[in-house]
Each structure stands twice: as structure tokens, then as C-alpha cells.
Amino acid sequence: MFEIFVEETFAAGHALRGYRGKCENPHGHNYRLRITLRGPQLDATGLLCDFVHLKQVMHLVIEGVDHKFLNDQAPFDTVNPSAENIAKYFYDEISRRMREAERRPDASGRASGNGAAITRVDVWETDTTRASYWPETADTATASKQKI
Predict the structure, then answer these.
(1) With contact defined as beta carbons under 8 Å apart, do 97 and 62 qualify?
(2) CB atoms inside a 10 Å sphere around CB 5
(3) DSSP string for the chain
(4) DSSP-derived pairing of the beta strands 68-69 and 117-126
(5) Would you list the domain boundaries of the chain?
(6) CATH for 2-137?
(7) Can you give the pTM of this predicted structure?
(8) 113-124 residue pLDDT tens
(9) CA of 110: how far to CAs of 66, 113, 114, 131, in Å?
């Protein structure tokens, strides 16, 4: 199994609806975003995923939130813009765009997918606070059902 990750940053403001404390007021963060991909095989070039391609996809999604007030942007106009929900948003959007790109044929007429998938998204609001999202798998579903 192979694994890569790419990090990018963006700045945005938000206010947590229904929260009691300082974070209910409008404020901003310099966010750091990490996308982790994992897959069983490399492409003909020896890459799990081209870093340049992953960064391009990340930038397309980041453009929609960078230097904006998240509460005014879909889906955060209805979903609370917590770090957890921001991580899930990036997972959903980047995964969707990567699946679309895999279905498009490359210059040789073949689809470009090699089974790589996003396995984790990390969003830092500060140097010491991070939220993560990853899709549930059979392993995590079993673990979450076990009682402590």
C-alpha cells in the first residue's frame, strides 16, 4: 500500500452558530489543510497520484472559501462551519472532483485511475488544534461498534 499527502493553506472567517463562547462571534483563521491519499498500486510513471494534479484540485476547492466568510458560502450557510464540517466538506468536494478526473480519458484514451483514494482530511485552525475526517470502512465501522 502506498500513501501520499499534500498540504495547502487558506484564510477564512466564520462564526459558530449555537455555540456559547468567543467562537460564536465572527473571527478568522489561517487554516492548514492536509489531504492524504492511499492506494495499492502506482501508475506507469511510478506515482500514486501526481502531486501537481492533487494540488490543482485542492486549489479549485480552496478558491471557493479562501478569504471569505464561510457562513455566507454553501454549504456553510446551513451547515455550521466547524473545523470538523470543513474537513468533511473538503473530503466530499475533492473526492468528487478526483473521481470525475479519473473517468476522463488521458492522451492515450485510457482512464487514468489506479485505485488511489482520499483516506483522511486534516484541517488545522491553529498550530495546536486540528479536526480530521475519513470515510468509514469495514474496519472503522467494526471498531466504532465495539464497547469500551
Answers:
(1) no
(2) 16
(3) -EEEEEEEEEEEEE--TT--SGGGS-EEEEEEEEEEEEES---TTS-SS-HHHHHHHHHHHHHTTTTEEGGGSTTTTTS---HHHHHHHHHHHHHHHHHHHHHSB-TTSSB---S-EEEEEEEEEETTEEEEE----HHHHHHHHS--
(4) unpaired
(5) 2-137
(6) 3.30.479.10
(7) 0.87
(8) 678 999 999 999
(9) 34, 9, 11, 37
